[in-house]
Write a structure and sequence with these properties.
Distance between the termini: 46 Å
Strand content: 25-35%
Helix content: 25-40%
Radius of gyration: 16 Å
């Protein structure tokens, strides 16, 4: 069973455990494929630096000072590994309302999976589960991939929804 902070299933379940495990495995395999495709086609994951603009929901990658790739993004969550906690972007008042609204579509994962963890603003979460959540979000939102943005001791996970080469 998927690791939940409460360890219990929700009030209603729309997926059997086996179905969820299959969906999660599919989401992870799909994310691996998408990440490889983004790296191969656009070099995402290989650039020296990046600039994220959460208000504009954009992520730009640079080679030295030259912009190379620009992506549209939707924040998923912030993860604090030292505290094993994850806060959904839709619940994070550090983001503008437009960003929280875009991210709130991820709450639909509750209806799909039956897990209330997708409705809880803050959950217990390790690194592995954070990537699982990112994979589930990517599959659910039909995104092109995921980027994990380091902010000191916090990681922000964003869905890449559009990519264009700038060079």
């Amino acid at each position: 069973m998927w690791p939940l902070s409460s360890g219990v299933r929700p009030h209603t379940t729309t997926m059997a455990d086996f179905d969820f495990d299959s969906y999660l495995a599919d989401a992870q395999a799909e994310l691996d494929y998408k990440q490889d495709a983004l790296r191969e086609a656009h070099g995402i994951g290989t650039f020296e630096r990046f600039v994220v603009d959460y208000v504009a929901q954009s992520l730009e990658f640079f080679e030295k000072e030259a912009p190379r790739v620009k992506a549209s993004v939707i924040p998923v969550a912030t993860h604090v590994p030292a505290k094993n906690s994850l806060k959904w972007a839709w619940a994070n008042d550090q983001y503008p309302q437009t960003v929280r609204d875009a991210s709130s579509r991820l709450r639909g994962l509750t209806d799909l999976t039956g897990f209330e963890v997708f409705q809880s603003a803050l959950i217990e979460c390790d690194d592995s589960m954070a990537w699982e959540i990112a994979a589930l979000a990517c599959k659910y939102m039909q995104a092109l991939g995921v980027y994990r943005i380091p902010h000191g001791h916090i990681h922000s996970y964003v869905l890449i929804t559009e990519v264009r080469d700038v060079a």
